[in-house]
């Protein structure tokens, strides 16, 4: 497991420090950030993955480490086992769907 620190200025007025933590397979398992603006809603997201490395769940926390929400992910795949639809659910309600088109070359 290792972490990467990313520091940059957002909108030239606020500093944003982000730390990404990765597992041995190089997959992000946590993102943690702070802002000078105390109204920033989320501070940390823990990413859960299945054996194939796909995100299955995110747990979102505020700056006081209070759990705010859990987002679960469901996938639909093409005939080559690429995910083409990733659905986000909060409290069993669909909140977002990401569609992607993959062009295969042979």
Biggest sheet: strand arrangement: 1-2-3-4-5-6-7-8
Q: Tally the helices: what do you get? A: 0
Radius of gyration: 16 Å
Instruction: Compute the number of strand runs.
Output: 8
The span between the termini is 36 Å
> What can be said about the biggest beta sheet?
8 strands, antiparallel
Helix content: under 10%
The domain tally reads 2
Model regions low in confidence, pLDDT < 50 over at least 5 residues: none
- Which structural class matches the secondary elements? mainly beta
SSE run: EEEEEEEE
Assess the beta-strand content as a share of residues: over 45%
Mean pLDDT: 83
Instruction: Assign an overall shape.
Output: globular
Blueprint (SSEs and pairs):
Blueprint lengths: L1 E9 L3 E9 L5 E8 L8 E6 L5 E7 L5 E11 L5 E8 L2 E7 L7
Antiparallel strand pairs: 1-2, 2-3, 3-4, 4-5, 5-6, 6-7, 7-8
Explain what you see:
The structure is a single chain. The chain has no helices and eight strands. With 106 residues, it is mostly beta strands. The protein has two domains: 36 residues; 64 residues, no CATH class. A hairpin with an 8-residue loop joins strand 3 and strand 4. The radius of gyration is 16 Å and the shape is globular. InterPro entries: YD. It comes from Neotamlana laminarinivorans. This is YD repeat-containing protein.
